[in-house]
Amino acid sequence: MPFPILRTPSVVQSEIISLLEPNEIVTASVCSKNLKHLFKSNFPRGKPLAWRLTMTDMNSCGRVDIETSDDGEQITVISAEHTSELKGHELKYINRYKRAKKCPVLFFNDQVLGTKWIVKYVTDLFSIDISSLFVDRNGTWAIDWVHKRQGKILYDFGWLETTKGNSDADKTVDYVLRNVRASNYCAIEASVSDNFKFEGKLGPMRQLYIHSNGHWITLNNLINFNSIEITVRGSRLSISDLNSFLRHWRAGGSSRLKWLQVNFEKHTFQEKFDEDLEVVETDEEKVYHRSGYGFERVVHGGYSIQRADGVKALIQCDPKQFILATWHERAMGSQQLVTASFCSKNVKHLLKRHYEQRKPLEWRLFMIDYKSWGRVDIKTSKDEEQITVLSADNLSELNEPIPISHASNGYITTFEYNCLTWFMKDQVLGTKMIVDYVRDLFSIDIFGVILDRNRTWAIDWVNNRQEKILHDFVWYKTAECNLDADEILDYVLRNARASNYCCIEASVSDNFKFDGKLGPMRELYIRSNGHWITLNNIINFDSIEIVVRESRISVSDLNLFLRHWRAGGSSRLKLLHLYFEKHTFQEKFDEDLEVVKTNEERVYRRSCDGAEMIVYGGYSIQRTDGVKALIQCDLREFILAVWACFFFGYCCLLKLPTEWEVGYRKNDDGSKETEGMRE
Amino acid sequence: MSSTEQGTSSAAPAEPTTAPESAAAPEVPESFYYVHGKDKVVHKVSAGALQHSALIHGMISNLGYTEEQAKANPFPFENIDGDILQMVVDWCNQHKGKPTPPEDTNLPKQKEKLFDLVLAVNYLEIKELLTYCCKQVAMMVKGKSPEEIREIWMIPTDAEDEAAEKEAKKRAGKEAAGETAAAAGDAK
């Protein structure tokens, strides 16, 4: 029984589309222009999909696959073949649906043109970029084509040799290696001549995999390739090459490398490590988690080697292969240092003196008091994981089965997950004590605090303890105790200070209003219940980025704000992102604002995490001083992204952090252009 | 779910320290409301079953009708066929107070009624049932070619769309010309 989908309301259409697989959408989209348009409007540019698109051009067949989840399963959505593949079928079958493949197959006289056509069709339909590219030697054209089409770097790349005896294989492989850029995985399988050499660089990437014929990989290549994992098959590297590589590694070279696997062309490898490398025999076994798809590989060792900075590696080898697997274990982490400081007063004194005498640590100390559980976390660098080094809990939370010890401080203490916990009758006191303990031990200030609504005391306590303003401040609501929510939030907003990031989540009443100021800071994030944010707040808050969820700001308020902004107000603001409480926002900009429609797209780099956000515009607005902004809006949200045309030059000159200024335009050919540079 | 059950279950986890044992909660009799479709046949449905419909739930939440008042004022849904409303009421009764399973075997089986059912469910804002119905619609095109999909989803070809558009423009032009002529006549 037929179902007239085009006669259903848009809510129903969206629900049905959300339940279709990508190949079903592509197949249905070729039914008619109207249906294609319906699908396209469900995948707008402003809402990038989490799907990943793979373009394949191999064995004279083009293909587009889509991966909708992280399980790695790909669905072919459309393919392009040469008309010669029709093998005498009549022309009326020129474009057909292959039931076995569950996707349409299009036939072209020019197969390259066909592949380009299907990729353009799918990227346009779903508004997504190409994530992965897999080609053989006839598909080398695609490398340049993809790079020119999109600003986004490929995630995976594979180049596989499908035919033997290629006269110009060396030239082609050299071209591929010099031009390909992939951030995650790069696989090369090539039949190059014995004389082929490559002197360039590869990476940075996560995995480099030379599938076969790796005889061309030299010691210099190993040293110059920037990858976390390198696997080479068919290698002709000698033991002296590997000794030289180990010497380079011990001196701190190839610092990102965690896995090196060399499979030899001839199975005659004999290990003979130079003495100065201090390679020692070991029976140790370790499980290495491969970065590709999370595979685990047990390395049985045989030998162990250590770098000058303490990083260790196991070496496993036999006549067929050589494996170097590293473990980035430092001599002692912040967690172990804190635990060790409880051994005795002398140990604590020793550590304390060490950290007093050396230059100030760049570690970041976070005070967390959330749901009646106090914690001190440390991040040893911006990119390292945040680790809990000490915690304080209420005595009533003490679980009997855990081994209890009485540490030197005299309080009941347990040791779980490599971290000590103090149990005290007064948990607030406990939190204060653990924060003071760690601050004192490492001579560092509190970098950030994460609190819930019952821990407002900590704001004043931190402000009184240190001169240095907090970098981050996060205040979450908890389900319990919603009495006095308005008063508490008012107190928090008036007293909390953070220079970088301020996140507020509160359940305040409908009547709550805040008439004070906030900032200066980099990012203000109202995580929920942002109904209390008024036009005056946005004007008065001094932040580079403002994100508000569940906003009730009206289009007339936004018109007033844009007028204020055009006149030079909120000059530090680079991003205003409002998510509306009700999804009924209708843009209607006042004429004097000179808001114009545009198809321009720009990439905005968020200051908090450096993540890139594509702003697809829709509208453009210009300030009297020449500064431009794109406006993107729909029923649910409003985005104002500012591009500082003139500011860029100053940033370069003053060497300010790049996240302050970056806003580059994507040109038609995919290249990036910065407004400041252009001018 | 009856109002009694709902009150107990929502109170217990929120305030475990202050809430008394759930056994102490008093039994409140279930309230009923009445609805009818295009055929004027009145269906008696419990408030618990009607909770599935965001539209009806919003209408009844502040009414405080007595049984007699509810009986005397059935909710009219003139845009819904009687048999479709019956299907919806049956589904709401079957799923009263139960968590909706990921796959629903109690869906109405008549495929020919699916379009009307989807429109009714969308109008009544029954989120779970709409998802189930849409799943059925999505399943219809699994493994089908574009030609088959065109038939199943009644998609006109581009040529048909263009012809229809041309026709609509022509009609609009004629209507506009007629209105202009009428206005000119009025002016005279």
TrEMBL record, chain A:
It comes from the Eukaryota. Pfam families: F-box (PF00646), FBA_2 (PF07735). InterPro entries: F-box_dom (IPR001810), F-box_Sdz-33 (IPR012885). Residues 2-54 form the F-box domain. This is F-box domain-containing protein. It comes from Caenorhabditis nigoni.
TrEMBL record, chain B:
Belongs to the SKP1 family. Residues 127-170 form the SKP1 component dimerisation domain. Probable essential component of SCF (SKP1-CUL1-F-box protein) E3 ubiquitin-protein ligase complexes, which mediate the ubiquitination and subsequent proteasomal degradation of target proteins. Regulates cell proliferation during embryonic and larval development. Residues 8-25, 178-188 have a biased composition (Low complexity). It comes from the Eukaryota. SUPFAM superfamilies: POZ domain, Skp1 dimerisation domain-like. Signal peptide: none annotated. InterPro entries: SKP1, SKP1-like, SKP1-like_dim_sf, SKP1/BTB/POZ_sf, Skp1_comp_dimer, Skp1_comp_POZ. This is Skp1-related protein. Keywords: Ubl conjugation pathway. It comes from Caenorhabditis nigoni. Residues 1-25, 160-188 are annotated as: Disordered. Residues 165-177 have a biased composition (Basic and acidic residues). Pathway: Protein modification; protein ubiquitination. The lineage of its organism: Eukaryota, Metazoa, Ecdysozoa, Nematoda, Chromadorea. Residues 38-96 form the SKP1 component POZ domain. GO terms for biological process: protein ubiquitination; ubiquitin-dependent protein catabolic process. It holds the Pfam family Skp1_POZ.
